[in-house]
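Service request form, structural biology core

Requester: graduate student, group of Dr. S.
Request type: structure prediction, single chain
Budget code: on file
Notes: please return the result as structure tokens.

Sequence provided:
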Amino acid sequence: MAAERAAYRDETAEADPAGLIFVDESGVTTRMTRHYARAPRGERARGSIPCGGWRRVTLLGALGLEGVVAMMSVEAATSTPVFLAFLDQVLLPEMARRPGATVVMDNLAPHKAEAVRERIEGAGLKLRLLPRYSPDFSPIEPCWSKIKTLLRAREARSVEALDRDLPAVLDAISAQDAHGWFRSCGYPAPH
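Core staff response, request fulfilled:
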């Protein structure tokens, strides 16, 4: 695994970070709430989560140096058909403005499907898989953390509320955030 990580570092050392688009997925639920809160001295901070009836939503997204490039939510786990739908309906139309970019993904089974490779390369893009067990090389991982923190503060209790709140949360992801995440993952992003 160390050799894979070193090879990946060597191969991406010369890459222009502006041409790298990181794709990943993450799950959110309708029971998310803040982990910490403040209250006036002597008072209890109040919050609640639903005991039952909560729902899970998968967010499929792409991050570039300028911020979130594409995002889709779906009430399903990421399977090859779900990931192909994300590519066809959301990511590849957006990537038409970025010919020659490199799409970087982890080693989730749907990412490695031949149909995924064909679609990405057929769109004039390059495909690069991260080394196994290397989320520290993916700037979209800290992006998910910020998205989930912002969604927790909104306490959306339905899928409709999550979908309604998601655009404002995504607007809070700035190019400055993305630059910092790229740098923290070892990519030479400008300050």
